[in-house]
Write a structure and sequence with these properties.
About 20% of the residues lie in helices and about 20% in strands. With about 290 residues, the chain is of the alpha+beta class. It has one domain. Strands 1, 4, 6, 7, 8, 9, 10 and 11 form an 8-stranded mixed beta sheet that branches. A 3-stranded antiparallel beta sheet has the order 2-3-5. Strand 2 and strand 3 form a beta hairpin. Helix 2 runs parallel beside helix 3 and helix 3 packs across helix 5. The chain is globular. It starts with 8 loop residues before the first strand and ends with a strand.
Length: about 290
């Protein structure tokens, strides 16, 4: 495992939060993290103009030169969050815990063409943090009728993300491989644990993440991450490799998931693509 992490684009300003998406194997119990003052990357400078220093009463003070008033720049507006897509709001990057319920999530799933079964993952305290989720479904079928093996049990929010994933999968596969994807081999969604490399909670603890290992095509070919993704230090050498790399980048760039982590990030992801719906964003797709 490399000692220095590859360069990635991160929005999350706190190291503990940034690392909350990075590794997927079982780790050690959490330990209290030192408190840190959050940076002000998203703040606007609202400091007042300097006041004129007080002068003695019998002294005439010249009027300050006239200068054009400087208006502080307006903050970049945050797009309204659409449940089922990446969270773009920087104000909740520090939120750690199960995702909130989406009141109309089941109606949204039906409108997206998803067949599902309501499931349960009761909240529980373990390893010093809370696992489980208040709103969970078993994803049975989606808009492109891609079969997930095994059928994933995920948060309702992630289920909406899987519906978007199906569209991106077939668009990318048709473009680069000339065939559609008919199946996805996934390696797990729910696992109550911290991360392998970092003392932070994994989104798997809430069934808010999924690991994608292989993609079966309509012509019986299979694009396997462990076989075809290739060495990230070099360009992809096969059509399947180009498909996998392009897919991962589109899933982040098109805001399908908040977090996308591949072998570009570390060797823990040499055999799968990790995606999740964390509050923060992490791009490990390039």
């Amino acid at each position: 495992m490399p000692e220095v992490l590859p360069s990635i684009r991160l929005r999350c300003p706190h190291w503990l939060i940034v690392t909350n998406c990075l590794a997927l194997a079982c780790g050690t119990p959490l330990e209290p993290a030192p408190k840190a003052t959050p940076p002000i990357a998203h703040s606007v400078d609202t400091r007042p103009n300097s006041a004129i220093a007080a002068q003695p009463a019998n002294r005439v003070v010249a009027a300050p030169p006239q200068t054009q008033e400087q208006t502080p720049p307006s903050p970049t507006p945050v797009p309204a969050w659409d449940p089922g897509l990446a969270n773009l709001n920087p104000d909740d990057d520090y939120v750690i815990g199960p995702p909130d319920e989406i009141p109309d999530c089941e109606a949204r799933l039906k409108a997206a063409g998803v067949t599902f079964r309501v499931a349960k993952l009761p909240l529980k305290q373990q390893h010093g943090f809370v696992c489980g989720s208040p709103q969970v479904v078993e994803y049975l079928d989606g808009p492109e009728h891609i079969r997930f093996r095994p059928r994933p049990i995920v948060t309702c929010q992630l289920a909406l993300g899987l519906a978007h994933l199906e569209h991106v999968l077939n668009r990318t596969a048709t473009e680069l491989l000339g065939k559609k994807v008919v199946s996805v081999t996934q390696g797990g969604t729910y696992s109550c644990r911290s991360m392998a490399r970092f003392k932070a909670v994994s989104e798997h603890s809430y069934a808010n993440a999924i690991d994608l290992y292989a993609f079966g095509l309509s012509d019986a070919r299979t694009a396997k991450v462990v076989t075809h993704f290739g060495d990230p230090r070099h360009d992809a050498t096969t059509p399947e490799g180009r498909f996998l790399r392009t897919l991962a980048q589109r899933l982040f760039d098109e805001q399908v998931f908040s977090v996308v982590v591949t072998r570009y990030f570390d060797e823990l992801h040499r055999d799968h693509i990790h995606v999740d719906m964390a509050h923060y964003r992490t791009d490990g797709s390039r």
